[in-house]
Structures are given as C-alpha cells and as structure tokens.
Specification:
Belongs to the thymidylate kinase family. With 217 residues, the chain is of the alpha/beta class. The chain has eight helices and five strands; from the N terminus they run E-H-E-H-H-E-H-H-E-H-H-E-H.
Length: 217
Amino acid sequence: MGLLKLTGKFITFEGPDGAGKTTVLNMISEQLRSRLGNGMILTREPGGNRISEKIREVILDRENTEMDARTEALLYAAARRQHLAETILPALNAGKVVFCDRYVDSSVAYQGAGRSIGEEEVANMNLFATNGLTPNLTLYFEVPVEVGLERIKLHRTASRVDRLDLEKQAFHERVHAAYLELAKANQDRIKVIDATRPVEEVAKETMNLLISELNNQ
C-alpha cells in the first residue's frame, strides 16, 4: 500500500515529560491563527476527537496500574488511527495545516523504549495504524530528564499527573535516550529546540521555525 499524498501540512510537537511543548503551542496558537485563520487545526494525542479522548482516559488513568505494556501500545495506536481517520486526514485533504501535540515518535519513545517492548515493533505497529503518514516537520523540545521531572513536580497539580508521569526515573531516561536517537536519525524532519531556556525564548524560536516551514510551500 502506498504512502498517503495529501495537500495540507502536518506538523507535530514532541518532547519528554516537562519539556513545555504544550505550553509553547498554547502560547503561539493565536499568532498561528492570525496567519492561517480557519486553514489550521490544533489537536493532540492521544485524543483529538470523542472516541480517541475516551481511549486517552483509559490509557492515562492512574488506577489502571495493571495495564500490560503491549495493551498500552495498542491502545495508543487505536486512538491514533481514529484521530487520523476522523480529524487529521480530513483536515489535510482540505489543505489545512495540522499542528499535533505528540504523534508516532511518542509511541516509539514511550512504549518502544520506555516500556522496553521494542522500538521497531512499535514503529511497525504504527505504520499500519497510520498508513505511513509522516509529519512534514517535527519540533522536538529537548530537556534533561531531571529538569522535566522537576517541572512536573513544581507546576502540575495532582489531578494533572497521569499514569506515565508516575513512572520511575529509569523509564524516563529510556524515553529521553530514544527521542535523541530519533532526532539523530531523522534530522531532515525533526528540528531540536533547547527547551531549558525561558519559555518566551523557546516560543520565539518555535514560531520562527514554523514560519519558515509554512513559507516553504
């Protein structure tokens, strides 16, 4: 089956827990909207529509401690498929720019490496789920594990701490290492942003990278 050919642009935001990517995306959303108007959508994974959000609730529920690692990976892939079918693909086919908070790279890093079930295996599972849809651009927000976990501790309320946030540091170290390998192996697609700096600086660099990509039609 051939790769999908679409008319819009697909841009993803990635990073370990506490990197600040969601904060930055929220900060620049109005600037993006002023440039693109209705020609864009902001979405997230897992989630992005009713069915995928329900799967998200199951995945991140802190009470689901007995969830098997492969079950978790499959649930992420299922949520992603529904998200693509119902939200992302229609937008791309309509020529819109899709900004998505997390995508396949997250599954490779968190389930493949973090859960130690195999990065290649998780990538292949998601190749089936996505029919090979790859982002035009991925912005990776880089922070050391200790910095990210300290930010979570300081800034997230108890109700916002999910099941993956509660994992031990070794889990987050594996996730971080996998992200760095993905960035190294996909330098044309993945642009690394130093997210240890003040959030205003990070947001400015992010916007500049996005403007460059959007102007490259």
